[in-house]
Amino acid sequence: PSQGLHRFFIKVHLDDQPIIRFDSLTWNMEPLVPWMEEAGKKFLIPKWIFRADMETLSELDQEAGGLRTWQVNLGCELRQDGSKGGFLHYGYDGMDFISFDKETLRWVTAQSQAQKVKEEWEEDPRWSQESKVFLEETCIAWLQRYLSYKNKTLEKIEPPVGKVTHKVEDERLEVLTCQAFGFYPKEIQAIWTRDGEACKYETRLKNVAPNSDGTYYVQLSIEIDPKERDHFRCHLEHEGLQEPLDLALEEERGWLIPVVIVAGLLPVAAIPFLI
Asked: Full-prediction pTM beyond 0.70?
């Protein structure tokens, strides 16, 4: 606001993985995964998504000054059955403001202040039609393009690398932690077992999360009596494994690395933009 200039940021996710970001201050696209290095040069900056009359927005709250924020969350989905989805939502100063219904080509307000914007936007049918085309065609084309870049580098299924560590809390309590790294695709079954039976309700599981190279990792912990340590195993099942892994605490041996790799494809994808 001190310079009277608008600044905007774009961050793009493919499924749950951030792949690229943009800052209007530097006007540079920064790839967040290696396989987007080439794709980043061809990324199109959809400046139209920031369509807003800033004077109209500022009139919504005359007494508020300083920094104002105009946020956009849009994306498209390509489902396993071939069907497509898309969404386009706007926020003003951190609150839901107005969203697009691409089936009816109407704008849906989330608060009364958005009514004036809704009326102005619906006076221009081209704006609604262009938004629908972007969600159903342009965005899907981008999604398929980025999937092709990703699949070129992740054509093979990668099995998990497993490791079990421990932390002694006191003489009656110990925490076992199982970590599985570097697997692809994302789907994995990871549980603690006691004498071969699942310990579902005693396990603290962190969600499966992406690595920068496109693979995934997961971590799960369990509190046990140190005297019972030999009864517990970390049980891993993944498409890249010929048979499940059952890992015990083996401090001296360290990493246990399965080496089976088979070919596979990613069945479902979505490309959300957080702006």
From this structure: no
